[in-house]
Each structure stands twice: as structure tokens, then as C-alpha cells.
Write a structure and sequence with these properties.
The structure holds two protein chains of two kinds. By secondary structure, chain A is an all-alpha fold. Chain A has ten helices and no strands. By secondary structure, chain B is mainly alpha-helical. The chains are: A mainly alpha, B mainly alpha.
Chain lengths: 256, 261
């Protein structure tokens, strides 16, 4: 256990250090969610005038919940890029050789993803508040929203680390990113689920991320919905992707 | 031998190399072409309720949105063109060319010729996808041809921007890093809503000063309005202006790249 903690701490520290000191890594992580917040909450705010759009806190809060959870998912995705880069540069192989407990490598990267997202999530939240976002949820409900973000970040990081460890090349980038991007955008991003029509409504209705986003919006509005379902789905995804990441690590170990 | 060939032939030779190089790297072609289509498919359906906003100019959001993949695809073309030229700088290919009598204009225009081919293929694909998803063109068959022409002009304009950046920065990684900025200009425009329906005043202001809005509106006018001379003039005007400015700036940049060898 001590060895696990030792490796986890070392990998997490390196991950955070690289993120903070390298603008090329941290800036896109911050710019992208801010940009989505500005583009969606600013450019599409007229959507709140659509008949039957009834989200009480307003369109900025409606979009903030999505962007907040999206930034959590992309915090995980960007960590996958870092893992792929570490394999491509040969650093990850040296890490595998020197680690007394290799599961700690995964845990370290996951912890690094979490810390990275806490920075980004804080900046996005401050930006939304400065933009006049209404928050109607109480402290406990907002803690629930933060918990959803942590769960999203955890699951996405494990997915991204798994893919990066299986492929061990920076060219894995689109494969890490695309499924997360598409899954997020196949949820009710711009309007509530009830206002979606056609194939997007059908897909959104069965997309697990829909429950997470609806739950996040409910918590922000002070009217919680599907909270238990959202946490169960994130926990399930975490378990599945943890197994996937562990198999990715085993694949990297076999490759030497 | 090269000295005896005309500028046109030199451009053709470099363009052929550029186009073949682009088409050999299928992964580089596939994702840039697919990404705008994914956004078109998702947003075209997810935002369909937007047509219920009073004053929205059409009943089909897909028809409204169709301009977006054309411009987004053109932005990807700029990155491809820039990365390809930057690779030639990085690998020393440009240095070796400097030892030949090939004219610098031919080198630059030839590289952009490859991007032009790519832009044309993309435009045809987006057009066919639009037609397949039920979009009709208010300007008729003639309008479709003008739409293709405007789309290719826009692709060429963005390719010149990519070329200029490649010559100035000389690094493929730096060109890739510029892409998010281009993406921002697309989203801070009238890509999702007409300017007169944007509620946030500051956003409306930004979209009005953002030339990308006029590229989109030129293309869009042919789909949902018919023949709108003003929108077309602005669309062609801004894209030609971008191409002209970038070419004028790229010419000395290319010369200095070659002199350094």
C-alpha cells in the first residue's frame, strides 16, 4: 500500500507540475470550456425564448452545468494525451521499469487529472458567476454538482488513460477525444431533453450522460432530478473504465 | 529544365506534389472532413427548435446550418496547408528547392494548389451531405454552383493564411496551436443564429465585426434566401481580401525563408 501511495504521489506531482509550468498544456484546458461557455451562453441565449423552455435560473446557468461537466470530462481526456506523450517520448517505459507498484501509475495520472480539472473548474465557475449566472441550489446541492464533476473527471480520465496505454502513441488523440466529444454532444446540450426532436432525442434519451447533465442542471437550479441515477451511472462507468485502464497497463507491460 | 518552364507549369508541378501528399495521408483527410459533418448532424437536429424563435429566416435549421461545415472545413484546409508547408520548412525540403531555379511564387501558389484540391473535395462532400439530408437550395442549380465557387474561394483564402503562418512560424506544432483560435472565430460569429436574433449585445457586436459571419452569410444566402447580391459580395469580398493580404505578406516571408538557405 505504501508503494502504491508513493508511486501515485510521484506521478500525480509530475502531472500537475507539467500542467502548471507548461502553458501549452494548461491554456487549452482553460480556453476550451471558457470558449464554449461564451459561445453557448452568450451566442445562443435567445434559445431561452423558445416556447416551453422552462429552466428557472436562465440560459447561462443552463449552459454552465454542461460546460462544467464537459470541462471535467476533458480534464480526463487531456490527461490521456499526456500519457500518450509519455509513451511516445519513452518516459512511460522508464516509469514502468522503476515503479514498485504499477497500479499507482494509473492512480497518479487520475489524481493529476483531478487536480488539473479543479483548477479549470474553478476558473469556469468564476467566469460564469462574473457573467451573471443565477445559482438557486443550496450548499449541499452545489456540492452534489461538484461530486458529479469529480465522477465525470474520474471516468473520463480512466477511459483516456486506458486508450493511451493500449495504443502508446500520440496519434491515439482522436480516438481518446472523439467518443467523449460525441457522447457529450449527444446529450441535451442546447435545450432540455423534452424540446429535442428526431434522432437526437432518441439517442439522448438513452445516453447515460443525459442523466448526469440533467442532474447537474437540477442541482444548480435547486430542484434535484435523477441525482442517484447520475451517481450510479458515473460509478458504473468508473468501475468499467478502471478495468479497461488496468488492461491497458497490462498491455503496455507486455509490450515492454 | 525548370528554368525553361513557365510559372504556370512550376505551380502545377508543386501543386501536384502537394495534392498527392495530402491524399496519401488519409487520416489527415478523414478527421477534418468528418468533424464538421458530426457537428452538422448533431447541431442540425439538436437546435431544430430554434426555428420557432420569431423572425428566424427559415423553417429548416439544417438549411441554416449548412454553411457552417463549409467554413469549418476551410479552416481545417488552412491547418493542412500550413502544416504541410511547415513540414517542408522543418525537413529542409524548402532549402533544397532554393537550390533550384524554381520561383518562390510557384512554390507558394503550388502548395496552395494542393489545399485548393482538398477544399474542392470537401465542398462537394458537404454539398452532397446537405442534399442527402433534405436541404433545398433557394437559388436553384446556379446557386449551387456559386456556393461551390464561394466555398472554394473561402478554402483558398484560409489556405493562404495557413501558408503565411507556416512561413512565419516554420513549425507544424505552432500551426496546430493556432487552430483553436480559428475555431473561436467560427463560434463567435453568426454560425448558429442570425445576427439580428442574437440576444447578448456584446456577442452581436463581436459577430458583426467578425468577417467569418460574412463568409457564412454569403454561403447561407444561397441556401435559404436565393440571390442576395449584398451577402454574396461580402462573402466573396472578405475571402478575396483575406487571400490577397495573406499572399502579399507571404511573398516576402517566402523570399526571406529562401534567402536564409
Amino acid at each position: 500500500m505504501r508503494r502504491f501511495a508513493y508511486v501515485t504521489r510521484g506521478v500525480a506531482w509530475r502531472s500537475i507540475h507539467n500542467t502548471v509550468v507548461n502553458p501549452a498544456i494548461i491554456v487549452p484546458s482553460i480556453i476550451f470550456p471558457l470558449f464554449f461557455l461564451v459561445a453557448f451562453a452568450g451566442g445562443l441565449s435567445r434559445i431561452s425564448d423558445i416556447p416551453r423552455f422552462d429552466y428557472k435560473p436562465g440560459y447561462t446557468a443552463f449552459q454552465f452545468a454542461f460546460v462544467f461537466l464537459q470541462s471535467a470530462a476533458f480534464g480526463g481526456v487531456f490527461t490521456g494525451f499526456a500519457v500518450a506523450r509519455d509513451f511516445q517520448s519513452g518516459f512511460a517505459r522508464r516509469l514502468l521499469l522503476s515503479s514498485p507498484n504499477r497500479s499507482g501509475i494509473i492512480a497518479g495520472y487520475v489524481l493529476g487529472a483531478l487536480m488539473r480539472w479543479l483548477i479549470v473548474g474553478t476558473i469556469v465557475t468564476v467566469a460564469a458567476l462574473l457573467a451573471g449566472m443565477n445559482v438557486e441550489g443550496d450548499g449541499i446541492q452545489l456540492t452534489g454538482l461538484l461530486g458529479l464533476g469529480l465522477g465525470m473527471n474520474f471516468a473520463a480520465a480512466l477511459w483516456a488513460i486506458g486508450v493511451a496505454m493500449f495504443l502508446r502513441t500520440e496519434q491515439a488523440g482522436p480516438l481518446i477525444q472523439m467518443p467523449v466529444f460525441v457522447a457529450l454532444f449527444l446529450a441535451p446540450v442546447y435545450v432540455p431533453l423534452s424540446l429535442l426532436t428526431g434522432w437526437v432525442h432518441a439517442v439522448s434519451s438513452v445516453n447515460p450522460i443525459t442523466a448526469v447533465i440533467e442532474s447537474g442542471r437540477g442541482l444548480l437550479a435547486g430542484s434535484p432530478v435523477k441525482v442517484l441515477l447520475a451517481f450510479l451511472l458515473l460509478a458504473g462507468a468508473g468501475v468499467v473504465f478502471a478495468g479497461f485502464a488496468r488492461r491497458g497497463l497490462a498491455s503496455a507491460e507486455r509490450a515492454g | 529544365m525548370v528554368a525553361q518552364t513557365s510559372l504556370f507549369e512550376q505551380v502545377g508541378a508543386v501543386a501536384r506534389r502537394s495534392a498527392v501528399g495530402a491524399f496519401r495521408q488519409r487520416a489527415l483527410l478523414f478527421f477534418p472532413m468528418l468533424f464538421p459533418l458530426i457537428l452538422f448532424a448533431i447541431n442540425g437536429s439538436a437546435l431544430s427548435k430554434v426555428t420557432e424563435i420569431p423572425g428566424f429566416p427559415t423553417h429548416s435549421y439544417r438549411a441554416f446550418l449548412l454553411a457552417m461545415p463549409f467554413v469549418q472545413g476551410a479552416m481545417f484546409v488552412s491547418i493542412n496547408a500550413g502544416t504541410s508547408l511547415a513540414r517542408d520548412v522543418e525537413t529542409g525540403f524548402l532549402n533544397r528547392l532554393a537550390l533550384t531555379p524554381l520561383r518562390s511564387e510557384a512554390m507558394l501558389l503550388g502548395q496552395l494548389g494542393g489545399a485548393l484540391v482538398l477544399g474542392t473535395v470537401q465542398a462537394i462532400v458537404y454539398l452532397l451531405v446537405g442534399i442527402a439530408t433534405g436541404v433545398t437550395f433557394a437559388s436553384g442549380v446556379g446557386g449551387v454552383l456559386v456556393l461551390l465557387l464561394l466555398s472554394i474561394t473561402i478554402s483558398f483564402a484560409f489556405a493562404t493564411l495557413g501558408g503565411l503562418l507556416a512561413l512565419r512560424l516554420g513549425s507544424g506544432e505552432a500551426i496546430q496551436g493556432i487552430f483553436p483560435l480559428l475555431f473561436v472565430t467560427l463560434f463567435l460569429s453568426s454560425s448558429s443564429l442570425p445576427r439580428n436574433l442574437i440576444k447578448a449585445e456584446w456577442f452581436k457586436e463581436v459577430a458583426t465585426y467578425n468577417p467569418v459571419s460574412y463568409l457564412l452569410e454569403g454561403l447561407r444566402s444561397l441556401v435559404i434566401q436565393g440571390w442576395n447580391a449584398q451577402a454574396l459580395a461580402k462573402g466573396f469580398g472578405f475571402s478575396i481580401a483575406l487571400a490577397t493580404i495573406c499572399l502579399l505578406l507571404a511573398r516576402p516571408a517566402m523570399k526571406s525563408r529562401l534567402v536564409r538557405t
